[in-house]
């Protein structure tokens, strides 16, 4: 339904620039062109809206992260696409995790999904490793592909997208290198 999508998008847009406790249903409703009653009827509360928005975010991440298993450059392109699109919102939510424990389950699902995506993407490489080596390699891939690496390189250091991709590529190749 169009109004549901507009409400979710308005909520996520506000969540990207405002602290969670400052996001008001009245503002979300106005941004979406609906009444507060409509928001409450569809989602129940801000927490209900967060839950549905979380599902929407997960679906969007899955689409942006589509890549061919084993394709290092394809994975890096997908990761970059995801962070360039949703990075600011995810960073904003991570910044608030300690203040708002209600955000933790959503963020934990994201962390788990990120690790699972890397596990699936590099499954062929990982399956040949011992269990301990598999875990340490996957841990290294998770670090190389972490959103805080994107933040450091793209936002803090002001590097270009190609520079970011090259750095992540180097780190992933080092992670995948046999020891």
Give a short synopsis of this structure:
By secondary structure, the chain is mostly helical. It contains 10 helices and no strands.
Write the SSE topology.
Layout: H1 2-17, H2 25-32, H3 36-43, H4 46-64, H5 72-96, H6 104-121, H7 123-127, H8 131-144, H9 147-156, H10 161-176
Helix pairs in contact: 1-2, 1-4, 1-5, 2-3, 3-4, 5-9, 5-10, 6-8, 8-10, 9-10
Your description of this structure?
The chain is mainly alpha-helical and 179 residues long. Helices cover 78% and strands 0% of the residues.
Low-confidence stretches: none
Distance between the termini: 53 Å
**Biggest beta sheet summary:** none
**Roughly how many Å is the radius of gyration?**
18 Å
Which structural category fits the helices and strands? mainly alpha
Tell me the fraction of residues in β-strands, as a range.
Answer: under 5%
Beta-strand segment tally: 0
Characteristics of this structure?
single chain; 179 residues; mainly alpha; 10 helices; elongated
